[in-house]
Design a protein that fits this description.
With 97 residues, the protein is an all-alpha fold. 55% of the residues lie in helices and 0% in strands. α1 packs across α3, α2 (25-36) packs across α4 and α3 packs across α4 (72-88).
Length: 97
Amino acid sequence: MPGNDWKGVVNQILYGLIFTRVLDEAAAGRMADAMVERRNLVAGPRVYAAAIAQARRHRGPLTDELPTPHGEDEFRVFLELLATQLDARRPWRRTIS
C-alpha cells in the first residue's frame, strides 16, 4: 500500500466503530463479516488486512485523525482481534457477485 494510504483505510475501520461501545471479539467478528461480505466496508478483506498489518507495525498514533470514543490502546487490541477474525474467514472470495 503506497505511502500512508493504509492510514485512510484504518480510519475507515475506526469510523465504523464510532457507535460500537465495546471493542471485543464479537465486534471484531461483525466487522470481519462486513469486510468479507463487502457490506459498508467495500474495499474487501485484502485491502483491510494489508492496512491492519501496516497499522500493527506503526509506532505512532492510530486514533489521532478522527474523534473517537475509543482510546489508542483499546483500538490496537481491537485491530489484533480483527486480524485474527479476518484470517479465520479465509479463503476470501476474489470478486463480489
